[in-house]
Every structure is written in C-alpha cells, then in structure tokens.
Amino acid sequence: MSSTDHDLNRTARLACAWSGIACTVLFAIGFLAFARFLPFPSPGKPAAQVAADIADNRTGIRIGVIFMIIGFGLFAPFVCGVALELRRADGRYPALTYVQLVCGGASAAILALSPMFFGIMAFRAGEIPVQITQALYDIAWFCFVMPYPVFSILLIAQGGAILRDRSDAPVFPRWAGWLCFATAAALIPTGFIIFFKHGPLAWSGIIGLGIPMIYFFAWIMTLSYYLIRHVNRETRPAV
C-alpha cells in the first residue's frame, strides 16, 4: 500500500471511529440545549398543555431537530467502523458482521426518522387543534423510544463479535462485549411504554427511557474510545 493509500485508509477508519462521539455530542446539543427535552416530557399531560409547551419552544425544538438529525446520521458510519474492525475476528463466514451492518443501517434509519417527527410536531403547534399536536407528540416519542428490537439485535451481534476476538491485540476489551449485552437488555423496557402514561415505565420514566438512554450513549462512547485507540495503534508509523 502506498503512503497516500495508507493515509486515506487511516483517515476513513478514524472518521468512522470519531462518528460515534460526534453523534453523541450533536444529539446532546439538540436534545438538551435547544429542544430542552430533559426532564423528559410526560405522556400524561393534557393536550392543551402539550400544545402550549411545544409552541413556547417551537424555534428551539426546530434547531434541536437539525442537530439531532445530523448527529444520528453519524450513527451509521460508527456502526460500520465497529463492524469493519471486528470483521477479522468473525471467521470465514462473517454472519455477525452482516447482522451488524444490516441492523446498523435499520437503526440509523429509525434514529434519523425520530427527530423528523419532533420537527413535524413543532411545525404547526399553536396553529392546529391541540389534539392533533398531542397525537404528533405521541408519535414522535414512540418513534424515538420504542423500536428497541433492531438495536438489541445489533448489540448482541457486536457483543458476540467482541467476545470472539481472541487476537493478541483485540480491538475492544472483553468487558465491552458484556456492556453490549447489558445495553441490549436495558433497551427492552422501552418496548412497554405503550402501556404506561405515568411512572417509571412511561417514556418519561427512569426505566422507560432514563436508564436505556444512559446505557445507549455509554455504549457508543465506550466503543468509540477503544475504536479510536485501536486505529491509532494499528496505523501508527513505524519508528
């Protein structure tokens, strides 16, 4: 490989690795600083209150949506970066690699759609009947919180691939594989928010969204850190 090809390869791999951190930072800016979705809005609020709250911060939500869509767009290269570095540990028939890529693509599509629904929710707030705004509010939060299965399958495939890596210099420590499994399990309660408007299992609750979100972004940041370290170590020029 020529020096130019080597540099381009290293740059592409590092771009994928850094995508996870950029995804998290941009999401946090949009979700927290502009949309101001923390503490999480309650699904039990009356329609008039929902519409009033959205109308009061309509511009902030719109700006936040832009940051979140860009951030979640970077989720796809992050997953590709992880799958690429783990491919060598996946053997002759890389089933886990393909599962990661397919589920990663599906997950990225879901993540890209959820901020768009927040944007639709804010677009005509205050101009349309409050019940319609509330319905859009419900759709946005359900899309953001509930579709856990494809994410959990991605995490299980990543965890299995990490534990299969028996090389002398593995990409990730073995405990990162168990973190993937723990995150997959932590996401399961999000599938039950359909039954609750109040309490810890609602989308505003600690189990319904709080703990799953902490695990989700801790997983992204952890794998990103070790991915960056691995690429830098592997592509460091020989002295």
Short account of what is shown:
The chain is an all-alpha fold and 239 residues long. It has helices spanning 3-34, 47-56, 58-73, 75-86, 95-123, 130-145, 149-164, 174-186, 206-235.
Please explain how this structure is put together.
With 239 residues, the protein is mainly α. 73% of the residues lie in helices and 0% in strands. It has helices spanning 3-34, 47-56, 58-73, 75-86, 95-123, 130-145, 149-164, 174-186, 206-235. Helix 3 packs antiparallel against helix 5. The chain starts with a helix and ends with a helix.
Summarize this structure as a short list of keywords or feature phrases:
239 residues, mainly alpha
- Helix tally equals 9
- Please state roughly what percent of the residues sit in beta strands, choosing from under 5%, 5-15%, 15-25%, 25-35%, 35-45% or over 45%: under 5%
Question: Helix amount, in percent?
Answer: over 70%
Estimate the global geometry from the Cα principal axes: elongated
What is the string of SSEs from the N terminus onward?
Answer: HHHHHHHHH
In terms of quaternary structure, the protein is single chain
Major beta sheet summary: none
Query: Uncertain spans, ≥5 residues at pLDDT below 50?
Result: none
Terminal Cα span: 18 Å
Beta-strand segment tally: 0
Structural class by SSE content = mainly alpha
